[in-house]
Design brief:
The complex is a heterodimer of chains A (164) and B (298). Chain A has 2 domains: 6-78, Beta-grasp domain (Ubiquitin-like (UB roll), Roll); 83-163, DNA polymerase, domain 1, CATH 1.10.150.120. Chain A is 35% helix and 15% strand. Chain A contains 5 helices and 5 strands, in the order ββαβββαααα. Chain B contains 11 helices and 12 strands. Chain B has helices at residues 25-35, 48-53, 90-94, 97-102, 104-111, 116-119, 124-129, 138-143, 241-245, 252-266, 277-297; strands spanning 18-20, 39-42, 61-64, 74-77, 81-85, 147-152, 155-160, 178-185, 192-199, 206-215, 224-230, 237-238. Classes of the chains: A alpha+beta (164), B alpha+beta (298). At the A-B interface, β4 of A face α2 and α6 of B. The structure holds flavin-adenine dinucleotide and FE2/S2 (inorganic) cluster (FES) (2 copies). Flavin-adenine dinucleotide sits between chains B (40-48, 50, 86, 113-114, 118, 121-123, 125-127, 129-130, 134-136, 173, 178-179) and A (46-48).
C-alpha cells in the first residue's frame, strides 16, 4: 500500500508548523524527526514509560500513542515551551535545586506533568503528586527528589494564581 | 492474523495503514461496511496503537471516530441512568461529579486503570471494545447491568454487557458494527460499591480485579449484592447466582461464605505469568470476603 502524505498543521510552543506526515507516524516521531524538537524522548513506544509526554491541547499525554494526523490543528507544549526566552521556569529551577534528575532522560516528561498539575492544582497533596506522576518512569532518582521539587515549586504557582 | 504473544518483537514504528477521520456517524458506518474486517475503529488509540505496534492487531484502515461530535456526550437522567458516548475519555469521567457521586464503583475502576496520561486519551467504550479480560471498568459496569448501543449501516441494536465479551480480544460486535455509547442504569437505591485490583507491581498488568456492589444489606427483601471479576477467566465475568443467594434471610456472614463457595464452584481461574490458578482462587476468596465486609460494615 502506497502511503500518501497528509499535510497537517501543528502549533508547537506557540509557533505554527506545516508538515506532511504519513498516517502511521506518531506525534512523537514527527516532533523529533520532522520538527527537530529533541526534548521529547522515545523509549518504550507503547505508553508505559512517559518519556514522550507532551501537553496536547493543555493535557499531558504520551505522544508515542498519538498519531501525528490526529493532532492536526492541535496546540502542543514541549519542555522548550516552558522556557521560551531561555529563562528557566520555576518548576525547572526546582528540579535543578533538588537534584531531581541524574541522566535527565525522563525529566521533560516529569516537568511537563508537574507543570500541568501545579497550574491546575497548586495545592496538590503528596498523594496527588504521586498519582499524577504514576505513569512516568525514572530509572535514576528514585522519585523522592522529584516529589520534593514539585512540592517546592508549588509556591510559585500559588503566587501566579493569586496575581490573576 | 493471530500472532503468538509469547514472542515480543520490538518495533518502534507502526505498520502502514490508511487513516480516515469521518465527521458523521453515517460516513464512519459506510467505511466500516466497505472494509469490514480490514478496518478498525479508533477512539483513544491506547489499546489499538499499542497492539498494532506489537503486531498483535492488524488494520489496513483506521477509522478515527473523534471527529464525530455526537459521540462526545455524557447524558444523565435522574432515576434512569447515565449514557456515555464512545469518545468520552476516562479522565472526563473521572472528573465528572455524577460519576464520582452516583457511580463510585465505576469511578473506583477508572481510578485504577493505567495512569492519568493514558486516561486523558483512553475512552470507556474503548476499554470494553478492546475485549481484554483485564478491562478495569468492566466488572463495575457488569454489576451495574450496563448495555451497549450498537449501530451499523443495517440499523441499531442493544447488547447487554454480560453478553458482549466472547474471549480474549473478542466481542459480540460484527465487523461492520460499532458502539455509539454505553448506557449505565441508575444504581439500586442505597448502593455502595468498590473495585479492588491486585497487581504484582504498580506498572505491571493486573493479576485480577473484583467489583462488589451492595445495597440495603440489612434488609433481606431489599438487599442486592452483585459480584464481578476481571482477568480470572478469558473474559470479565459476573456471577449472576450471587444476587439470588443474597436474597435469603440468613446472617450476612453465613451468606458471604456461601457466596464464596458458589463463586469457587462456578469459576475455574486461569494460570498465566501474573498468577497461578491457586493464587487467583485465593485472591477471589480473600477479595470477596474483604469487600463484602467493608461495604456491609463501613
Ligand atoms: C501503558 C498502558 C496501560 C494500560 N493499562 C490498562 C489498565 O490498567 N487497565 C485496562 O483496563 N486497560 C489498560 N490499558 C488498555 C487501554 O488503554 C484501555 O483498554 C483503554 O480504555 C482503551 O480505550 P481507547 O479509547 O484507547 O481504545 P482504542 O485503542 O481506540 O480501541 C481499542 C479497541 O476497541 C475498538 N473500539 C474502540 N472504540 C470502539 C467503538 N466505539 N466501537 C467499536 N469498536 C471500538 C478498537 O477498534 C480497538 O480494537 C492500557 C494501555 C496502555 C498502553
Ligand atoms: S515512549 Fe511513550 S510512553 Fe514510553
Ligand atoms: S533522571 Fe535518569 S531516568 Fe530519570
Amino acid at each position: 500500500m502506497a502511503e500518501k502524505l497528509i499535510p497537517i498543521t501543528l502549533k508547537v510552543n506557540g509557533r505554527e508548523y506545516k508538515v506532511e506526515v504519513k498516517p502511521n507516524e506518531t506525534l512523537l516521531f514527527v516532533l523529533r524527526n520532522k520538527l527537530n524538537i529533541k526534548s521529547v524522548k522515545g523509549s518504550c513506544y507503547r505508553g508505559e514509560c512517559g518519556v514522550c509526554t507532551v501537553l496536547l491541547n493543555g493535557k499531558p499525554v504520551k505522544s508515542c500513542l498519538v498519531l501525528a494526523v490526529e493532532a492536526d490543528g492541535a496546540e502542543i507544549t514541549t519542555l522548550e515551551g516552558l522556557a521560551p526566552f531561555g529563562t528557566l521556569a520555576p518548576i525547572q529551577k526546582a528540579f535543578l535545586e533538588h537534584g531531581a534528575f541524574q541522566c535527565g532522560f525522563c525529566t521533560s516528561g516529569f516537568i511537563l506533568t508537574a507543570h500541568w498539575l501545579l497550574t491546575h492544582n497548586p495545592d496538590a497533596t503528596e498523594e496527588e503528586i504521586k498519582e499524577a506522576i504514576s505513569g512516568l518512569i525514572c530509572r535514576c532518582t528514585g522519585y523522592k527528589q522529584i516529589i520534593e521539587a514539585i512540592k517546592a515549586a508549588a509556591k510559585y504557582y500559588k503566587q501566579d494564581k493569586q496575581k490573576q | 492474523m493471530a500472532v503468538s504473544k509469547s514472542v515480543i518483537v520490538f518495533h518502534t514504528l507502526l505498520p502502514e495503514f490508511e487513516y480516515f477521520r469521518p465527521k458523521t456517524l453515517q460516513e464512519a458506518l459506510e467505511l466500516l461496511d466497505k472494509y469490514q474486517g480490514d478496518a478498525k475503529v479508533m477512539a483513544g488509540g491506547t489499546g489499538l496503537l499499542f497492539f498494532m505496534r506489537l503486531r498483535w492487531m492488524q488494520a489496513k484502515y483506521v477509522i478515527d471516530i473523534k471527529g464525530i461530535k455526537e459521540l462526545h456526550t455524557i447524558k444523565y437522567e435522574e432515576g434512569k441512568g447515565l449514557t456515555v458516548g464512545a469518545t468520552v475519555t476516562l479522565s472526563e469521567l473521572f472528573e465528572n461529579e455524577i460519576v464520582k457521586n452516583k457511580y463510585p464503583i465505576l469511578w473506583d475502576g477508572i481510578r485504577q486503570l493505567a495512569d492519568m496520561h493514558i486516561r486523558n486519551r483512553a475512552t470507556l467504550v474503548g476499554n470494553l471494545c478492546f475485549g481484554m479480560p483485564s478491562a478495569d471498568t468492566a466488572p463495575a459496569l457488569l454489576t451495574l447491568k450496563a448495555k451497549l448501543n450498537v449501530v451499523s449501516v443495517n440499523g441499531t441494536r442493544t447488547i447487554e454487557l454480560k453478553d458482549f465479551f466472547k474471549g480474549e480480544g473478542k466481542t459480540a460486535l460484527k465487523p461492520n458494527e460499532m458502539v455509539t455509547s454505553v448506557f449505565i442504569p441508575e444504581p439500586p437505591e442505597g448502593a455502595k460499591g468498590r473495585y479492588l485490583k491486585f497487581v504484582r507491581t504498580a506498572d505491571d498488568g493486573p493479576i485480577m480485579g473484583i467489583a462488589v456492589l451492595v445495597a440495603n444489606p440489612r434488609d433481606p427483601a431489599k438487599r442486592i449484592v452483585r459480584i464481578a471479576f476481571s482477568n480470572v477467566v478469558s473474559t470479565p465475568i459476573i456471577i449472576d447466582e450471587v444476587e439470588e443467594l443474597f436474597k435469603q434471610d440468613k446472617p450476612l456472614g453465613e451468606l458471604a461464605e456461601e457466596a464464596i463457595k458458589l463463586i469457587k464452584s462456578k469459576v475455574t481461574p486461569k494460570s498465566d505469568v501474573r498468577g497461578s490458578r491457586e493464587l487467583r482462587e485465593h485472591l477471589m476468596e480473600y477479595g470477596t470476603r474483604y469487600l463484602l465486609k467493608t461495604l456491609i460494615e463501613g
